[in-house]
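Q: How would the C-alpha cells look for this protein?
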Amino acid sequence: MSSRAVLDPTPTAQQAMSPTGPDVPDAVAAARLRADRRRALRKTVLRSLGEAGITLVVLLLLWQAVVSFTGISPYIAKGPLDVWDFLVGSENAEANRAQLFPLVGQTLADSSLGFVVGMVVAIALAVVFSLSKGVEAGVMPLVLLLRTIPLVSIAPVIILVTGRGTTASVAVIGTIVVLFPALANVLFGLSRAGRQSLDVVHVFGGGRFTALRKVNIPGALPSIFAAARVSVPGAVTGALLAEWLSTGTGIGGSILKFNAQAQFAQLWTSIALITVITLVLYNLVQIVENIVLNRMGMAAGSR
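A: Here is the predicted structure in C-alpha cell form.
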C-alpha cells in the first residue's frame, strides 16, 4: 500500500473516521424530536392540571355562593368549609370517613363496571358499523331509542330481566348511559381515515380488516380517548342511578337515606366527594391521552 493511500483516505473513510459522520445528523434530529415531544407533553399535562384546578376553584366558589346567598337554612345547606370540617376537622372526622369512604369505593367500583362495559360495547359496535352499513342501519335506531327514552322509565324492565341488586343490572344501566356518546365519538374517529392511506393498504393487497387495523383504528385514537373522557362522568351517573334504582348500595343508594334521616352533612359530603373524584378521573384520562398520543406522534394538545 502506498503512502498516498494511507495519508489521503477516501471521503467514505473520512466520514467513517469523523465524529460527525452521516449518522450524526439523524441522531441529532431524533434527539431534538424527542426533546420537543417531552416539552409538548409537559405543556399539555400542566395545562390539564391547571384546567382541573380552575374548574375546582370555580365549583367551590359557586357552591359557597349558593349556600351563602340563597337563604337556605345552614342546618340543611352545607358549604365547602362544613364538608372539610366533617371529614377532617371535627372530633368525629375519623368515624365520618369510615362511614363514607366505603360507600364511595362501592360507587367507584360500579362506575368502573359501567365504564368498561360501555366502552367495549361502543368500540365493538363502531367497528361492526364501519364494516357493514346494513348492520348500522338496523342497530343504530335501537341505540337512538335507548338514548331518547328516560332511563328511569325503563329501569323496572331492566331490573326485572337482570334481577334487583345484581351486578348485571349495574352493568346494563351504566352501559346505557355511556353507550351513545362513546359510540358517536368512536364512529366519527373511524370515519376520518384518509383516502390515500386506505388506498395504500389496498394497493399492497390488504382487505377491509387490514385497513381497519392499520389505518382506521390507529387514526381513531384521539376520538376513542375523547369518548373515554366523556364516558367518565356518564359512568358515574349511571352507577348512581343503578345504586338508587336497583342495588341500594354506594352513594346512590345512601343519598335518599341521608335525606330521610336529616343527615345533611353526610349528604353534602357524599356529593362533594363524588364530584371531586369524577373531576380527577376525567383529567386522569386526559393526561393518559396526552401521553399516548405524544408517544405516537399525534397532536394531543391541538384540541
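Residues 26-302 form a domain with the MetI-like fold fold (CATH 1.10.3720.10).

The two ends are 65 Å apart (CA to CA).

Upvote if useful.
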